[in-house]
Design brief:
The protein is an alpha+beta fold and about 475 residues long. The protein is built from 21 helices and six strands. It is globular, with a radius of gyration of 31 Å.
Length: about 475
């Protein structure tokens, strides 16, 4: 009888245990460190939402530094799922909308996920976030493969927030400082956008107006009195900002203004910021030759030189100067003339061969530096350590080197992997990309044999000119 009763009870007991196990499995876990779980990308979304729920139920608010930081990490990192990001954004917006908008002005530049961007844009329109105008321009400044510049969602957002003003004019107003103080990064981003979406003539007209409040806008207005072409990229703008300071190696912005005012007007065409150090030096050490005379002298000189061209580049034959005259501004003749004059200095050649020998034995990186001027106007070699050592065929310029470029002749580096390196004589694709990004010219020295270095000069517009060879002193 007892056995029979136990047998009858067994299915009920088993069912109870199963039900208890199911209910226990459904119960949310209590996490010791829910903030860490919330940010853990390896955990399933359900568990991360459980951690989120626990934080909310515990009364955790954005005043908690760890929780606040976690919410911002969710919103501004594309590595997290959309539902968590939106949930975090809603909490931050409801708790401190003004801080969220202010933070977005910088952090929006790290968001590449279009659904998240479109959510933020819709939220800005819904809540009429006027301050989000700066964020929208910063986002628009980044090129997109998905949209054309004039069909970007940012355009619709800017029109909604600024009715009656065209998106490009709104972008200029942000750049000029009309929407309040902006960072250098935001100003440069807005300028790069403007250079893509509107004409230089229109930008020059807008820059002539007195209401410019941002540093970059004022410096670009000053730039128009110095050179013909304004910089279009970040590094060119940073060079201009340096030259616009009151104190630097060229004597400060007043000295640049004074020297460039003496530059003959018919030589002004196609001058750029990169030319300023050479031209200011030329004005400081008269008599100054006519650039057409320099052109004739250089062409005659290079006719006698043996040229060496890279085997892996399309510019092998085009390295002849006479084939690239359409890419050479009158000011470029002064640059090339100074490079060639520098190569005549035995102290310059000695320093270059010494560093080239060091580069030959250094297999972790290429070496380089800046060709410059001393206080008396004589040429000198300024070696700089690379920013990082990564590869024997790469040179990473340090911030110190870049700043030295702003007031000197040219950046240089070596192709010195072997003494017999003529097949790699000249700039590679990375080198020409560097010149384009920096909006500056440069020189590369390549070993031809133990006692010979080939000299190649290259410009941001793609011109590559073989200037011949120098011999070990």
């Amino acid at each position: 009888m007892k056995v029979e009763s136990m047998t009858q009870m067994r299915p009920f007991a088993i069912g109870f245990l199963i039900l208890w196990g199911v209910l226990a499995g459904c119960a949310p876990t209590v996490y010791e460190k829910p903030t860490e779980v919330l940010l853990d990308r390896k955990r399933p979304g359900r568990l991360r939402h459980e951690a989120f729920d626990q934080l909310v139920q515990n009364g955790t608010t954005v005043k908690d530094p760890a929780y606040n930081k976690a919410l911002y990490q969710l919103v501004w990192s594309d590595r997290h799922p959309m539902d968590l990001r939106i949930r975090a954004a809603e909490i931050l917006i409801e708790s401190d909308e003004e801080t969220f908008i202010e933070t977005s002005k910088t952090l929006i530049a790290v968001v590449d996920h279009w659904p998240m961007l479109e959510y933020l844009f819709a939220k800005a329109i819904e809540r009429n976030w006027q301050g989000f105008t700066v964020s929208a321009v910063h986002s628009w400044s980044r090129p997109s493969q998905r949209y054309g510049d004039h069909t970007r969602p940012e355009c619709d957002l800017l029109q909604a927030l600024n009715p009656g003003t065209s998106p490009e004019r709104v972008a200029f107003n942000v750049f000029a400082g009309s929407y309040g103080p902006t960072t250098l990064r935001q100003q440069v981003a807005a300028w790069q956008l403007l250079c893509r979406i509107t004409t230089q003539d229109k930008l020059k007209l807008w820059l002539s107006r007195p209401e410019l409040q941002s540093e970059v806008a004022r410096n670009l207005r000053l730039c128009q009195t110095w050179v013909d072409r304004m910089p279009r990229k970040r590094e060119g703008v940073l060079m201009l900002n340096h030259l616009a300071q009151s104190n630097h190696a060229l004597g400060g912005s007043d000295r640049v203004t004074e020297a460039m005012a003496e530059w003959p007007h018919d030589w002004f065409v196609d001058t750029e910021v990169r030319h300023i150090p050479v031209l200011v030096r030329a004005m400081s050490h008269p008599p100054m030759k006519d650039p057409r005379d320099l052109q004739r002298d250089i062409l005659v000189r290079l006719e006698k030189q043996t040229r060496y061209a890279r085997i892996d580049q399309r510019h092998m034959e085009a390295e002849k100067l006479e084939h690239q005259l359409d890419k050479i501004a009158l000011a470029d003749w002064f640059v090339m003339a100074d490079v060639l004059r520098a190569m005549e200095s035995s102290s310059v050649r000695s320093a270059l061969f010494l560093q080239a020998d060091q580069d030959l034995s250094e297999t972790r990186t290429e070496l380089g530096g800046v060709l410059g001027y001393d206080d008396s106007g004589q040429f000198k070699v300024m070696p700089f350590e690379p920013k990082i050592m990564d590869h024997d065929r790469k040179f990473y310029a340090s911030d110190q080197l870049v700043e030295a470029m702003y007031t000197n002749l040219a950046h240089y580096h070596f192709h010195a992997q072997s003494h017999d390196n003529d097949t790699y004589a000249g700039p590679g694709r990375g080198d020409t990309a560097f010149a384009s990004r920096m909006e500056s010219h440069a020189v590369v020295f390549s070993f031809i044999d133990h006692d010979t270095l080939n000299v190649d000069y290259y410009q941001p517009n793609g011109a590559v000119i073989d200037l011949g060879c120098i011999k070990r002193p």
